[in-house]
Specification:
Helix content: 55-70%
Largest sheet: 2 strands, antiparallel
Order of helices and strands: HHHHHHHHEHEHHHHHHHHHHHHH
Shape: globular
Number of helices: 22
Strand content: under 5%
Length: 511
């Protein structure tokens, strides 16, 4: 942390426990979001369902994740509500992992995954929202770290599952299953939101079930169990547990007490303290749409929300459709990459996303979020152009996949930090952006899946280039909306020795 200044270091120390807690909760999110793809064939055997039936489990999870993201803002009204919702959500993920092995009906499994999706949606919205509330103008670096943990979880869960996956068809019949020899190819071809791409595979649904995938889910349940415990400890520390609310607040260290004193002195000299004003913004999606939030708001207020959501609609949609279809693109003509080699592409993509998020943690402290977003969207667009030009090169496909992972890695936290900064943390940016990103990931995968099936493999790169161009256009419009958005008078009159708004927020965790 040598690249942080003393002020940010003090803020981080003041909020160490809540920050680490939100990071760990996002690890749960990543652990839960990535396990379903590689384990789906074994879950098909466990539920004795067809491929087309089991892939609806993807839809139940993703749809409820989107619903949970929309509704997550409901629990932000108090710190107690937010932490209780995060505790229940993270505990629900461990429970889901534990009971998946006993779900022998595909409908029951879909319901269980829907519960997991709701929990993941709440985690997505609340963790981003709470970190922004704590650090405000200094939130960019902490949001980058937050999204590194979701990438780390998404990398870890397939690695845990891999030793327990079936190498051959896990439903044994008297005759050899016609699809058994293609099992590795089918596993790599599973795309979450495109249900028609598996219809030509015929695998048995009746017979002796032989699968060890249950052990993977029980291991993940145990790995995730410390996360709800960490949230409970934070609830206990803040004296928000009903039977533990007595006692005096903990004493502050000397440097933090000095920080509090300086802030209090400035507040006493001000005739209108921002903390005396009612908190606005950061509602759930439906609360954001209430007309009372629009009274007196300039057009740029709406434009910032819409452009930010559309930008993430495209970039998160690209992330989803590329990770879902790059394998299918590689094994089709003209590249015709071998199934085993092509299977490394999604892992390479997610690996460089995680690496990029790790690199972005120190970079985001030195670079403005708007600059990082510009580099990201321009890099995505240029990479797709080069992939189109060198579409016959297998080597460049691997290079381009790694490049896309790096450029897409820090887009969401950078856009979130930028838009919240524009709106002075009083809009509905977190809820709207999380929702826009979730919708984009679902819609663009459906769209690309249909086009890929009808028009052939080359359309995969064409769609990516078009989406990248739209992302860049929406970024330009977001910049224009920023220029048009009026700057609050209180910020225009800031003196050099007056602390930024983020200096006040550490009091959020002093009970």
């Amino acid at each position: 942390m040598l690249w942080w200044d003393a002020r940010v270091t003090t803020l981080f120390k003041r909020n160490l426990q809540p920050t680490l807690t939100y990071w760990s909760v996002f690890f749960s999110f990543g652990l839960c979001i990535a396990f379903l793809g590689p384990t789906l064939l074994d879950l098909r055997c466990q539920t004795q369902s067809s491929l087309s039936q089991i892939t609806w489990v993807f839809f139940s999870q993703q749809f409820c994740l989107l619903l949970g993201s929309c509704l997550g803002g409901i629990f932000k009204r108090t710190l107690a509500q937010s932490l209780c919702a995060l505790f229940v959500s993270s505990l629900a993920i461990s429970v889901v992992f534990a009971i998946i092995p006993v779900c022998h009906n595909v409908v029951v499994l879909a319901v269980v995954m829907a519960v997991a999706g709701l929990a993941m949606g709440c985690i997505d919205t609340l963790s981003n929202m709470q970190l922004v509330k704590i650090y405000q103008k200094d939130s960019a670096v902490f949001l980058q770290a937050l999204h590194f943990f979701v990438g780390f979880g998404a990398l870890l869960s397939p690695l845990i599952a891999d030793p327990f996956l079936s190498d051959t068809n896990c439903i044994l019949t008297n005759s050899t299953a016609t699809g058994s020899s293609n099992l590795p190819h089918i596993r790599k071809s599973l795309v979450p939101h495109h249900l028609g791409n598996l219809s030509h595979y015929d695998l048995p649904t009746k017979g002796l079930v032989v699968t060890r995938v249950s052990y993977a889910f029980w291991i993940m349940a145990l790995i995730n169990l410390p996360v709800p415990f960490a949230v409970f400890l934070l609830l206990y520390k803040e004296r928000l547990v009903p039977w533990c609310q007595s006692g005096s607040p903990p004493l502050l260290p000397a440097d933090e007490l000095a920080l509090e004193t300086r802030i209090a002195d400035r507040d006493d000299s001000s005739t209108s303290s921002p903390r005396t004003q009612p908190e606005i913004g950061h509602e759930d999606l439906f609360g954001c749409c209430q007309s009372k939030n629009f009274i007196g708001a300039p057009c740029s207020y709406f434009a910032v929300h819409v452009m930010g959501a559309l930008l993430l609609f495209m970039t998160d949609g690209i992330l989803g459709e590329y990770s879902g279809f790059v394998y299918s693109y590689a094994v089709e003509e003209p590249l015709s990459v071998g199934h085993k080699v092509a299977g490394y592409l999604p892992s390479l993509f997610w690996g460089f996303i995680t690496l990029g998020r790790l690199i972005s943690i120190p970079v985001s402290y030195r670079m403005k979020p708007a600059t990082m977003v510009f580099i990201n969207v321009l890099g995505v667009l240029v990479t797709f152009f080069l992939l189109l030009i060198f579409s016959s090169s297998v080597v460049f496909l691997f290079v381009g996949t790694a490049s896309l992972g790096l450029f897409l890695s820090s887009t969401f936290p950078s856009v979130l930090a930028y838009t919240e900064d524009i709106l002075q943390y009083k809009g509905c940016a977190t809820t709207v952006l999380v929702t826009g990103a979730g919708v984009g990931e679902m819609v663009l995968q459906l769209l690309v899946g249909s086009i890929f099936h009808d028009q052939g493999s080359y359309s995969f790169l064409v769609c990516g280039t078009i989406f990248g161009a739209f992302a860049f256009i929406f970024y330009i419009f977001l910049l224009f909306s920023h220029r048009m958005h009026p700057q609050p008078q209180s910020d225009m009159d800031l003196s050099p020795d007056k602390p930024p708004p983020s200096m006040e927020e550490p009091r959020l965790y002093q009970s």
